[in-house]
């Protein structure tokens, strides 16, 4: 168990650093805009009772633009804006570009959270302005109307949201108030007491050794008393919101929309269902509507995630932490029932239940940590045990928010320290942060998928090489690896295939040529089998998976069980890998072992210390690779290229190719004098093969209008 970082004793030790968003925008139409930025920090003087600091411009009006911070509790931006403004305009914009990133259930949650935010602000003497449209247009008009000099908004890491913020900044530069243009002022919630990102080590192991203190949450401030006579706008119903989204082009063409709605399991069962069978075995189980209890935190129609306002979520958190105590309260019993349903492995229920509320900022990460640690102290006479937490739920909550903060900081540092090699961008999938890059301005879309334990940079000499062949190349680090988030969940090959599906739909926006190495190849094959419309062709590089002649059924189970054996096995495996990593990797590169350089080894070692890695490794013991490759490739053989390193130490390449030739007639096969990772061992050869293959497939396609999302 990692050493528990100590809490600061002050209620709120210092105001957050604020930064004025500088000019970072390249052409938005470019697929590789850089969002690295210089940071100009403006310290806001700390004063008592929310009074403006001596050096702050206290005579101006300000706008506080809410996005993913839908609360007044522990809101540093609200504190800073209130301290430096005579009048303050809180604003929420229903911007279709921001909301289109959310599922219907998350959009429901937004409505409940915005309703509660307005209520909370009214209790503090203000109101919440609600507007529909593009954020830059709405904010521009309001800045003119109230003569605002500052627009406060939370720092973001997601690429799409950062682009919108950049457009807002450029728009503000054209609006002058008091002889200067209005400024976009960024704020963050300082979970750890870190003064600058330069203090953030690359390794989580090194980070823990520094033992940064964790800051305490802040109560709502005293807000400016000056009233603004404005039209504050009505809160929409869900139907009105959906109508708005549809009118603004956020209703993807029907085929793509259905693709995202169908799980991999339901598609597989449909493929396996015999013609004479009824629908009684459909995975879409009809559930009896659950009776809602008073003060329920499960506010959406599906009713399986915590939502509502801040007080509702805090109440659900209190119930979650006290799971072992039992309760006679109906609302807490409901939470406990949902904990049992969501506990797919020890502690996984926290992220499953509270992740969406944290993603929308209904509650802050450090508020969760504060509540968990306070309860732990209450259970232990004011002390924290060095041997771990006294309840699984306490550890799950505290560990989850610390892990989320680490990956958020890593993403922020990646964006702020562009080194000229890759322009890192961030995509959020089901609330989790995923790193990716893109290069190339024209040509077919190609998506590169790495193998187990690797990351997007494992294609370090392929991304540019393939793009220079006249292609647009995306590479991502899938959930659980590299610098992408590693939440406490059960990792499966099917889950990763669904991640690829959503990335293609939401980020790439058109059908792609999919390239995968090792387990990445198997995931690619699953995606191609289940969602044909998204795939132009696939390239499998020393892919995992087997060919099973004459299979009569496909053994597949949705449920994956973890055990004490897998827990122990993962940790022993991790110890062994750290000890022998360089030797193991060199065995995978038999032709050019020098390609296993210090950078590759050090980056793999760095990632091995990230929070959540043991959980990812546990998945090795529950992988289900029993769906045969010949089943997955059936019907798409003409769209498949196999690139096989013939010296692969973990498979019999000759036998595998012989089976593929016999049972997957039509697939193209290329052999290389390489090991398990030919793309990195012989990058020029693989780049040439992929470029030639893509050009060949493209030449056979009918004249097409690419399906844009």
Automatic annotation (TrEMBL):
Region of interest (Disordered), ranges: 269-289
Pfam families named in the record: Abhydrolase_6, DNA_photolyase
PANTHER family hit by this protein: DNA PHOTOLYASE
Domain Photolyase/cryptochrome alpha/beta: 60-192
Protein's name according to its UniProt entry: Photolyase/cryptochrome alpha/beta domain-containing protein
